[in-house]
Amino acid sequence: MESMNKSEAAIEAILFTMGNSVELSRIADAIGEDKETTRKLIRHLMDSYREEGRGIQIIELEQSYQMCTNKEYYDNLIRIAMHPQKPVLTDVMLETLSIIAYKQPVTKAEIEKIRGVKCDHAVNKLVEYELVKELGRLDAPGRPILFGTTEEFLRSFGVQALDELPAVDPVRLEDFKAEAEEEIQMKLDV
């Protein structure tokens, strides 16, 4: 009985992870069972979900199976989908994004040199929000990843091309440089 539960759990994990339909033969190969045993395990899962009134179900599509939402809960999904959560960009993320936008293609090391602190989390979040993407790798030791902005970045900020980004005011640029030099000097004096 325990191997059956493990096999069912494996099927559940496969269908959840894949998202789309998966052929019976691929599921059988993945769990190390024959097709008929796999079909019985899937049917058992389908019956269990139905009997328990679960929010998910498994459907059969021409010798393939897919995990999806139980249609009984569509209204709940529609209510939440009508109010999508817009990602919020923190000051750190905005600062990192502006460095990438103006300096691209740019590596994390270059961003960190400008900011003076680690930027892993900010860059990862910007990639997750599809505002930044990997453009390739720098031909240097360690082959660091080069980052640049995406079309989603352009859409989100209402520009058609990067050359439409506002130019940095030369006076403010000098102020920024002076502030950065002061910070570096303070760190060196400590």
Here the CATH topology of the largest domain equals Arc Repressor Mutant, subunit A
CATH-scheme architecture of the largest domain: Orthogonal Bundle
Structural class: alpha+beta
Content of β-strand: 5-15%
Report the span from N to C terminus.
66 Å
Number of helices: 9
How many beta-strand runs? Answer: 5
Task: Give helix % range.
Answer: 55-70%
Radius of gyration of CA atoms, rounded to a whole number: 25 Å
Task: Give a topology summary.
Layout: H1 2-18, E1 22-23, H2 24-31, H3 35-52, E2 56-60, E3 64-69, H4 74-81, H5 91-103, H6 108-115, H7 120-128, E4 132-137, E5 145-149, H8 151-156, H9 170-189
Antiparallel strand pairs: 1-3, 2-3, 4-5
Describe the structure.
The protein is α+β, with helices and mostly antiparallel strands. Helix content is 56%, strand content 13%. The strands form two sheets. Strands 1-3-2 form a three-stranded antiparallel sheet. The radius of gyration is 25 Å and the shape is elongated. The termini are far apart.
